[in-house]
Amino acid sequence: MRERSVLLACWLSIVANCIATGLDAQATTAPSSNGSRVVLNDAHFHLTNYVQRGIALPEFLRMMGDSVGRVALFGIPLQQEWLYSVSGARAPTYYLNTDAPLYYYSFTDAVIATEYLSLPPRDRARFDPMITGFNPADMYAADHIRRVLETFPGVFTGIGEFSLHRSSCRRRRSPGRRA
Ligand SMILES: [Zn+2]
Predict the structure, then answer these.
(1) Which one of 51, 55, 111, 146 is least enclosed by Cβ atoms within 10 Å?
(2) Alpha carbon of 165 to ligand 1 centroid (Å)
(3) For residue 47, how far is its CA from the centre of ligand 1 (angstroms)?
C-alpha cells in the first residue's frame, strides 16, 4: 500500500483552549465531596468515522453514564472515497483500508449540530461541539467557520481538531502549483 495520503494534525492545543470550562481530567475515582460520580472528562471524541457513520448522541450519553462528565464532540472532517477501480465491491470504512483518496466533508459539522440540538438542554450541557469540517490550509476556511456559527448559533464552542491531507501540505510548500 502506498504512503498514506492523510496526515492528521491531531489535537492542537486550540481545542483545549476553546472548550468552555471544566474539561480538565480529574484524578480521583472516588465520589467527590459534592456527591458527583464523575471520574473523567473526555476532550476528544469523534461521533462519526471516516465514512461518516457513528452512534447517535443519546446512545453515546448512555455509554457516558454518570462517570464521564463533559465531552468535546466533533465529527471526522474527511470522507473516505469508495472507488470501484481501487476497492472493487469492498467498501472501505477506514483510510487504511484503501488507496483511494479522501475529501473534506463539511456536512459533518451539520451532523454534529443536529445531534446536539436533538438533546434536551440538561444533556446538551455535557457537550462542547467543535467545528472540524474544513480544510485548514484553505484561505476560505474562515468563511466555513463563520457560516457554521451563523447557521447553528449557540451550538459550537470551538474549532478542532484539524485534519490535513498530505496533498494540502504539498500545495502549501508549492503555492500556486497544482497536481
Ligand atoms: Zn482525533
Answers:
(1) 146
(2) 14
(3) 10
Residue-wise pLDDT for 96-114, tens only, equals 999 999 999 999 999 999 9
* Distance of CA 33 from the midpoint of ligand 1 (Å): 33
* All residues at 6 or more sequence positions from 78 whose CB lies less than 8 Å from its CB, including other chains: 6, 50, 95, 102, 103, 104, 105, 163, 165
Residue with cell 457554521: 148
- CA torsion through residues 156, 158, 163, 167, sign: positive
Give the distance (Å) from ligand 1 centre to CA of residue 102. Answer: 16
Q: Measured in angstroms, how far is the CA atom of residue 42 from the centroid of ligand 1? A: 12
pTM (2 d.p.) = 0.77
Q: For residue 48, which of 133, 148, 143 has the smallest C-alpha distance? A: 133
87 CA → ligand 1 middle, Å: 25
